[in-house]
């Protein structure tokens, strides 16, 4: 091989690597960095709008930039055209993180209704269940004290689709805390976990929890660079409702959209 041929090969390899890195960087930005549509920073804090506001508060499953966007689907439903939906989900948030920003990201929006879906990162980080319960109670109490909003607490989806794993047995204690908090505070409980468990129970060979950042970035690249749907991404890994053992496929997100819509239809009645 001549020196000129070798140079052409090296240049070609470098260009391919640059293209791959660029594509991965784009996927990473779209999935992990960018804000969701109609985040509190752009939707709240100014003069109240004409439409009643629904705030959807939580972490990455609510933000919906990595995985199915159930808040966006809710916003697009014609029966809720008169409402403004604010996406107060932030990737990686725990219950303590949401508590720290509840004034700016929830109360500042002057909501008529609030959904709260937070806790998967508490489970993964090992937050003691009693501390999680205290954080959740404080979030609800602060919203109740400063607004007249209807509030719903959503139970946490499984982590991985094998329900007989240590992490899902641990997660059950956090879901018990959610249900107890809703009952004690007199707010509504939305059974997301129960709906997803019912669906997963019909399928064999369910994948155990094996989340990693590489798996999440691969899922994002398949979607944003290769154009695969979130359902296609889930199926490529042998999954039904989750793309990477945490975040939602389109089908998984549709369960939350339907459950939230059913709750809002009742909660927002005059």
Automatic annotation (TrEMBL):
Alphabetized InterPro entries for the sequence: Ester_Hydrolysis_Enzymes (IPR051532), SGNH_hydro (IPR013830), SGNH_hydro_sf (IPR036514)
Domain of life: Bacteria
First and last residue of the signal peptide: 1-22
Pfam families to which the protein is assigned, alphabetical: Lipase_GDSL_2
Keywords for the protein's UniProt record, in alphabetical order: Signal
KW Transport (keyword) present: no
Keyword Metal-binding belongs to the record: no
GO molecular function: phosphatidylcholine lysophospholipase activity
Residues of the SGNH hydrolase-type esterase domain: 58-212
PANTHER family: SGNH HYDROLASE-TYPE ESTERASE DOMAIN-CONTAINING PROTEIN, THIOESTERASE 1/PROTEASE 1/LYSOPHOSPHOLIPASE L1
Record-given protein name: Lysophospholipase L1-like esterase
Organism this protein belongs to: Saccharothrix ecbatanensis
């Amino acid at each position: 091989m001549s020196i000129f041929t070798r140079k052409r090969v090296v240049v070609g390899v470098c260009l391919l690597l640059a293209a791959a890195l660029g594509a991965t960087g784009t996927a990473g930005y779209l999935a992990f960095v960018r804000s969701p549509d109609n985040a509190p920073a752009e939707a709240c804090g100014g003069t109240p709008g004409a439409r009643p506001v629904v705030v959807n508060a939580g972490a990455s499953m609510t933000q919906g930039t990595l995985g199915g966007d159930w808040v966006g689907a809710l916003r697009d439903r014609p029966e809720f055209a008169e409402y403004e939906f604010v996406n107060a989900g932030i990737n990686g948030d725990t219950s303590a993180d949401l508590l720290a920003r509840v004034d700016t990201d929830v109360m500042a929006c002057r909501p008529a209704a609030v959904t709260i879906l937070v806790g998967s990162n508490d489970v993964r980080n090992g937050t003691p269940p009693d501390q999680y319960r205290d954080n959740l109670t404080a979030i609800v109490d602060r919203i109740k004290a400063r607004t007249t909003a209807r509030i719903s607490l959503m139970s946490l989806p499984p982590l991985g689709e094998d329900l007989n794993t240590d992490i899902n047995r641990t997660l059950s204690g956090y879901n018990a805390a959610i249900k107890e908090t809703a009952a004690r505070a007199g707010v509504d409980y939305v059974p997301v976990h129960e709906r997803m468990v019912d669906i997963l129970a019909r399928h064999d060979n369910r994948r155990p929890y094996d989340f990693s950042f590489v798996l999440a970035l691969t899922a994002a690249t398949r979607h944003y660079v290769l154009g695969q749907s979130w359902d296609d991404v889930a199926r490529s890994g042998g999954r039904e409702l989750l793309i990477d053992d945490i975040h939602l496929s389109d089908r998984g997100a549709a369960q939350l959209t339907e459950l939230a819509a059913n709750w809002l239809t009742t909660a927002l009645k005059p």
